[in-house]
Amino acid sequence: MAIPVRAAVLFLCLILAACSTAPRGRSAASSVKPEAERKEAPDFSLKDGDGRTVKLSDYRGKVVLLNFWATWCGPCKLEIPWFTEFETNLKDRGFAVLGVSMDEDGWDVVKPFVARLGVNYRMLLGTDMVAQQYGGVDALPTSFLIDREGKIASTHVGLVSRRDYENDIQALLTTQ
């Protein structure tokens, strides 16, 4: 195999694996936990692109997809169009997406990226403190599905299938 081909294959494998070191040996997709096993999602206050403070608790009563991501993360770029579509199709059913960018360069890189992709959901600038509250988010993308009572019902680390998200979201929208 020629060196450029090997390099391309290696690059593709790295992109598909995740942008950071995700824990290995377990499935990245998880099913919705039974209500009795869910833990309260840590509340936070973060700024959106307009400088307004957003708290997770403002979304109580909705099913929330909380997505930690970055502009440089290949798998994140694959998921964002799905999340935009979920927001469009499910917002009337009490669903919302919150994106939490972990980009060190802040809004200077996030705003043009979000505009270019036509993101229609609330985007926030994350902090290390918030990432630590959610278990030390050490792989991007990492997403949490939060039920209407504000409890973490499902966690997805790394790139998982669109179908995994759809199944978990539908389960939360129909059971609550």
Give an overview in words.
With 176 residues, the protein is an alpha/beta fold. The chain has a single domain, classed as 3-Layer(aba) Sandwich (Glutaredoxin). The protein is built from five helices and eight strands, in the order H-E-E-E-E-H-E-H-E-H-E-E-H. The strands form two sheets. It has a six-stranded mixed beta sheet with strand order 1-8-7-4-5-6. Strand 4 (63-69), helix 2 (74-90) and strand 5 form a beta-alpha-beta unit.
Strand content: 15-25%
CATH topology: Glutaredoxin
CATH architecture: 3-Layer(aba) Sandwich
| Spatial gap, N to C terminus | 54 Å
CATH class categorisation: Alpha Beta
Task: Give the CATH H-level superfamily.
Answer: Glutaredoxin
The average pLDDT score comes to: 87
Order of helices and strands: HEEEEHEHEHEEH
What sort of overall outline do the alpha carbons produce when their principal axes are compared?
Answer: globular
Largest sheet: 6 strands, mixed
Structural class: alpha/beta
Separate helix tally: 5
Total separate domains = 1
Helix % is 25-40%
Taking all Cα atoms into account, the compactness measure Rg is 16 Å
Tell how many strands the DSSP assignment holds.
8
Low-confidence stretches: 5-18, 20-30
